[in-house]
Design brief:
Number of strands: 0
Helix content: over 70%
Largest sheet: none
Radius of gyration: 21 Å
Oligomer: single chain
Shape: globular
Length: 338
């Protein structure tokens, strides 16, 4: 769709501008996603500062920072799913139940997600659960999914058969193979489970704290940064697990649909490409929303401030320093080659 707009609206098809347009769109989507996460966190906690911490934490997470400057669509997908959460996850005791307009908007957002990345049909359970939880009607949840599915499928068919002139068989093959990683199911074994569990924590750590490949900064630096990222993930999850019991029961109930968001994606990430940051960028809004809720539940402000400072300082400090070092080395390489 963006390619069509580029060719139609820009002079001479905007030759050479496609990558710039795509990265600008991703950056805009990333900023919108952070703003939506702030709105959602403020709604859940009733406070401003936990929402600011959540938005800043997601923006500082390296995987999201990278996705927000990339030509791929992950930042846009995060924005769309966070939009569904904002639309369909009000606290029942504090706000009116959403109407059919919200249901339609959630369905359209889901359909756009699957157009961006077909694996994001995994968001379907969350869309159903969120709309059902918010409206009290499972029929409205199913209606949202049907609308999104119709939008997505119709767009695929129009582009494939109407624009590209594909046959029915070619169109089906294109849709089924338009993503990577799940065409061939893995062979499950004990060694596979152990290996991929390690890769899950490695991938999560890289999503939050940048760990370049060994050929970039050397093996010792890569191992050291990977250890920092994994340790940071473990500490964050431990803090969330210990403190979450103190969260207001009404807030915990309102957050129940998030299980339908994270569990399918965690299982998918465990099975396919678990070390890739793209797998875990999609669950970052849930992680940082939980952080906001836990910070708001801490009674002592000094403790809450210390926890927030730690959770933001680690990715900010390590990511900025690592990116700066990478750029310095790239410039040195460029100077030598010239």
């Amino acid at each position: 769709l963006l390619e069509w707009a580029r060719r139609t609206l820009l002079p001479d098809g905007g030759h050479g501008a496609a990558a710039h347009l795509a990265t600008a769109f991703s950056s805009l989507s990333g900023g919108i996603a952070c703003g939506l996460l702030f709105v959602l966190a403020r709604r859940m906690t009733g406070k401003v500062w936990p929402g600011l911490v959540a938005a800043a934490g997601m923006a500082l997470s390296y995987g999201f920072y990278r996705a927000s400057g990339d030509v791929e669509a992950y930042a846009t997908c995060v924005a769309l799913m966070t939009l569904i959460a904002v639309l369909a996850m009000p606290l029942g005791e504090r706000g009116p139940r959403p109407g059919w307009g919200v249901v339609a908007a959630a369905g359209i957002a889901l359909g756009l997600c699957t157009l961006m990345h077909t694996s994001l049909v995994l968001f379907t359970p969350f869309a159903v659960a969120a709309v059902w939880h918010a409206t009290g009607s499972w029929k409205k949840g199913v209606a949202a999914v049907c609308l999104g599915g119709a939008l997505s499928l119709a767009s695929f068919l129009i582009v494939a058969m109407g624009v590209l002139g594909m046959s029915t068989g070619e169109t089906i093959r294109w849709i089924l193979t338009s993503d990577n990683g799940y065409a061939q199911p893995p062979e499950l074994s004990f060694a596979f489970v152990v290996r991929n569990l390690g890769r899950v924590f490695y991938g999560m750590g890289r999503t939050l704290v940048h760990s370049p490949a060994p050929d970039r900064l050397g093996v010792p630096a890569s191992i050291r940064l990977s250890a920092v990222g994994i340790t940071y993930v473990v500490i964050t999850l431990a803090v969330l697990g210990v403190v979450f019991r103190r969260v207001d029961p009404a807030v915990r109930r309102a957050m129940q649909p998030l299980w339908a968001w994270v569990l399918p994606l965690i299982l998918f990430g465990f099975l396919f490409w678990p070390s890739a940051t793209e797998r875990w960028v999609l669950v970052l809004p849930c992680l940082w929303l939980c952080v906001a809720v836990v910070l708001a539940a801490l009674r002592r402000r000094s403790v809450a401030a210390a926890v927030a400072a730690f959770l933001l300082a680690v990715p900010a400090g390590f990511n900025l320093a690592t990116v700066a070092e990478e750029r310095r080395l790239d410039q040195r390489t460029l100077d030598r080659s010239s």
